[in-house]
Design brief:
The protein is of the alpha+beta class and 394 residues long. The chain has 9 helices and 19 strands.
């Protein structure tokens, strides 16, 4: 795994913060490595002509049964440098951990998947008897536009090459195989009230601040109630106010408008429609209690449905079997809270796993790091699963 570790260090030493750095630099590092090792690849580009995905071994026929290995090459921003003990782009190794932004999310997966592309046959020799479809093929896609939230790379790749039947996202974490995640309902709630002098003799009956207080209480009460969970998706929905804006920047005037960014995470048992219904009822209750001469409003929501790949589907079975051989026991199949490109892909029929990768600490935080000794077992697990898939073993 020396070559994988060396590539990982080079990737970490190349800043690729979403919205901060020029992503062409990290693309050049990866494509140069692929060229040096004889791995054919192609680039997809955004409307501005900038590369947004690196694609290895794309499907050659609509009848191909495709498993996509996916990892992002852009990262979260570094944030406050003063909170970092190790420089975020030095790729410092200490006590077996490699430190740096993106080391775990998800440059370790990029390095592992590059080595798989170099060393492993990625297409079956004949049409798959197991699936009854065409040739089985593993396509590798490195997304340059994931942490922005736009997911531009995966959108470009699927627009050009179609949606895969299966996808494994190389997010970090070696102790679980993640088969699904919550979706979301995101909107801007605008609370309106009377504008007046904050030192006046009377307090206006309808205040935007009072409406905000009740909205925050409703969010808190929602999160405190009995969890709405099922046996196969044991994570409850959750609501969060993630940002506040108001135009009155003075102590002497009551706010006439407060904008609240509201993020509601949804599950199969309590989905997008339920979130909208809860929000409508909450705002109706606030209007009854505070008055509605200055009505509140809600922006058109941005929504993604939750997803859950069944445990008996092909990819979970392949990864469980491969992990059991490499690790001695298969990690449990679980679901997670954060959304990811799996929400996008699953809505187009793809069965997705969104997590099996290196052991990690502090993803998105200061001193993010990846445990180097876990590169080898993660590589061996994916390689064994790829070989079984391509060989039609399942």
């Amino acid at each position: 795994m020396k070559s994988v570790q060396a590539l990982l260090a080079q990737l970490v030493q190349t800043p690729s913060q979403a919205g901060v750095d020029n992503l062409s630099d990290i693309v050049k590092v990866i494509t140069a490595w692929l060229d040096d090792h004889g791995v054919a690849h192609t680039l997809t580009r955004n409307a501005a002509g900038q590369p947004d995905a690196i694609v290895i071994n794309p499907p050659e026929s609509e009848s191909d049964e495709v498993w996509m290995l996916n990892a992002c090459v852009d990262t979260a921003p570094v944030g406050d440098l003063g909170q970092w003990r190790h420089a975020p782009f030095a790729a410092t190794v200490e006590d077996g951990w490699l430190y740096g932004r993106g080391s775990s999310d998800s440059k370790a997966a990029v390095a592992v998947f590059c080595e798989i592309a170099r060393s492993t046959r990625l297409a079956g020799k004949a049409p798959s008897k197991a699936s009854g479809a065409g040739r089985r093929r593993v396509t590798v896609v490195f997304d340059c536009d994931e942490h922005s939230g736009r997911f531009g790379g995966i959108r470009s790749a699927t627009q050009r090459f179609g949606y895969p039947q299966h996808c494994a996202i190389g997010y970090p974490g070696m102790h679980e195989i993640v088969t699904g995640s919550r979706g979301f309902h995101r909107s801007t709630v605008t609370l309106r009230g009377a504008m007046g002098h904050s030192g006046g003799d009377t307090v206006p009956r309808e205040l935007a601040a009072d409406k905000l207080q009740r909205l925050l209480k409703a969010v808190s009460d929602f999160n405190a109630r009995k969890p709405l969970i099922t046996a196969d998706f044991p994570i409850p929905p959750r609501a969060s106010v993630t940002g506040l804006r108001t135009g009155a920047r003075t102590h002497s005037v009551t706010a006439s408008k407060i904008e609240c960014l509201l993020d509601i995470r949804v599950t199969p048992a309590w989905g997008v429609a339920a979130a909208q219904s809860w929000l409508d009822k909450t705002l109706a209750k606030i209007a009854r209690e505070c008055g509605d001469a200055h009505p509140s409003s809600v922006s058109k929501p941005n929504t993604w449905p939750p997803y859950h790949t069944p445990h008996d589907a092909l990819l979970p079975r392949l990864m469980e079997s491969a992990a059991a051989k490499v690790l001695g026991a298969a990690p449990p199949l679980v679901v997670c809270g954060p959304g990811n490109i799996g929400n996008f892909l699953s809505s187009h029929g793809t069965q997705v796993l969104c997590g099996f990768g290196v052991e990690f600490r502090n993803a998105h935080g200061p001193d993010e790091c990846a445990k180097l000794s876990t590169l080898a077992p993660v590589f061996k697990t994916y390689r064994a699963a790829v070989q079984a898939f391509v060989g039609g073993a399942v």
